[in-house]
Amino acid sequence: MNEANALRRVAKHTSIPAPRLIDFTQDSDRTGFMLMTKVTGYPAEKTYYLMTYEEREQLTRDLGKCISQYRRIKNHNESLICNTIGGPITDRRTDDIPYGPYMSKTAMLDDLTGGLEEIRKDKPLSMLYEKEHGICFTHADLHLSNIFLDGGRLSGIIDWENAGFKPEYWEYTAAMWPYMVMGQRFRFVAPRRRERLNWYCKPGEILLGESATDIVTLFARPVVPKSHGSRAKATDSWLENPYLIRQKLVTPQKRLRRQSDLGVATYTPSYVDDTQSHTLELPDEIHKTPSHSNDTRSRLLELPVEIHLLIFESLGLEDAFRLGTSCQYFWGVLKPLTARRFAGEFGIWAGTPVVCVSNRCEPGGDAAYPKGLLSADDVIELEQGLLKSELLEDIRPEKDGYDGPANLYSMAMYRYSRVTEQTFTEGFIPSLLRPAAESMQDIPCPPDVREVARLRPFDFYPTTREWVLRNLTTREFVRPTAVALREDLIHGPFIDILGYGEIILSKTCWSPGIYKGVWAGHALDIVPSTYLNDDGLWKDISRQVAGELMDIWGRGYGNDWKSRIIESNVQRASVNLASFRFES
Q1: Contact at 8 Å (CB) between 3 and 20?
Q2: Contacts of 306 (CB under 8 A, 6+ apart)
Q3: Residue-level pLDDT at 139
Q4: Are 42 and 150 in contact (CB under 8 A)?
């Protein structure tokens, strides 16, 4: 009955494109039946991620006009807070359990916070009591499933069963609830690499309460320090040639993969134009520290440089480091190799399609995922599902839906490799400090041995450059100055408080029925702005993306959120590459 009356009020007092009530009847058990018109178009959840920025801005204006109209509908009931016929209010956040009606906002708050009397005077609950809020007509379920679009324009608003007269903030909190709560979990996945992050999250909580800085290192392509991007000649000595031959400086997202337990070293070269992998089976003698006798050393140095590279690339870092400190020439070979190996731990998802996928996605190969995200084999795998032997012991397949097709969230959890957490110390790779110290005690060493052994993360991300976030799929980019709250909060690709991590997270989430991020399934990277071509093929969307992000935070923290957030967070929110924390 409440929805029927709500539709009558909306039709009488507004021009909102809502279903028109034709008839309504109610049985003796108070079960109601309505006959109404059908709105045109499709739910926004199915088309929003395909809309242009201009179409989204128009939808925002259209919705704003509709909300302004129905907020002017007057309450002629005795109760201040009630449904459209003066009865109890309902809300899906409380499982549609009726509450009220109430004669005042305080009475409603006392009822809803029953059992929390001891903390009512503490923030944030105290703010609800202290601040004045108007009471107005509210839809109370305004999310993308209930908003219909036709031809890119608003064509209908449906599901008015929870409508009533409620505090003015109710519309926003009810609309945001599906994206921030609803028990959904999201996991970052790169299907083509068959990798996932080893944490799950609720995007709303991270965007408004935590930090997404960790994500940046997955997409920021490292730049090998110039001091390490060089190789010496066999005739070099420590004093004769302090400047070494430069090699290519930028490493792609491919990582070194080793199978030392099989006696085989597999190496993916870090050059941008070299994508072939080389598998080398090397004798055990190669792994021994070479003799320092003149004859042996001469014969080793006479080998072609390609053989020297293969030798170094077959060794573990510590053994390679000891060999590299044996002479100037080998030191020149080692330096770029060491830097590239370290750099290979960064930017591993740059240029590969990614998605932050919900655990509520439908199982099976026919489920809707972003175009181009999954291969044909991936779809078949989802349809076949998981084996019971793969599941954790405390999961019962018949209860948790693992007895048939699986969704991408579950498949990634059980079959994809975890991107291991990075633990950065002052020396970056602590294991090199010991062989460096040993080498300095035993034989003469190059003057920059400590520098090479103690590479820092910022050595790979120079802060003197402007780093841009690129969408390689759509050829769009975002500049840091448009996103950062202040320019002094920009540190290369890392931006304190609000930065590229938050953008990537907010635009790659994928939850059918709730939210489909426009960048879900796209290939992204973060690179120096010099990588942008001057041929006009790249589109600057900095203003639009920054506006979206600022709107999310503004709605979450209020009009003066910038000054308050900066004041309370700038000290503790600085990028701390000494301890990237991943939650299991």
Answers
A1: no
A2: none
A3: 96
A4: yes
SS3 state of residue 99 = strand
Residue position matching structure tokens 């300095």 = 440
Q: Which residue has the tokens 């030191």?
A: 331
500 to 423, 482, 570: CA distances (angstroms): 21, 11, 16
Distance CA 74, CA 136 (A): 8
Alpha carbon distance 310, 557 (integer Å): 56
| Segment 189-247, tens digit of pLDDT | 999 999 998 776 666 555 555 567 778 889 999 887 766 654 444 333 332 322 222 23
Q: What is the mean pLDDT of residues 419-435?
A: 50
Rg over CA atoms, the chain: 30
CA distances 115 to 110, 119, 123, 236, 531, Å, are 9, 9, 16, 78, 58
Q: For the beta carbon of residue 407, count every other beta carbon within 10 angstroms.
A: 22
DSSP 324: H
Distance in angstroms (rounded) separating the CA atoms of residues 22 and 26? 14
Give the chain's length: 584
Burial grade of 134 (CB within 10 A; 0-12, 13-18, 19 or more): exposed
> Counting Cβ atoms within 10 Å, is residue 560 exposed (0-12), middle (13-18) or buried (19+)?
exposed
Query: Mean pLDDT: which of 161-165, 439-443, 508-512 is highest?
Result: 161-165
- Structural domains in the chain, CATH included, are 2-180 (3.90.1200), 186-221+350-420+462-569 (no CATH), 228-345 (no CATH)
* pTM (two decimals): 0.59
- For 132-212, where are the E strands, in sequence order? 135-138, 147-150, 153-157, 164-167, 186-190, 195-201
Contact between 304 and 216 (Cβ < 8 Å): no
Token couple for 136:
């107005």
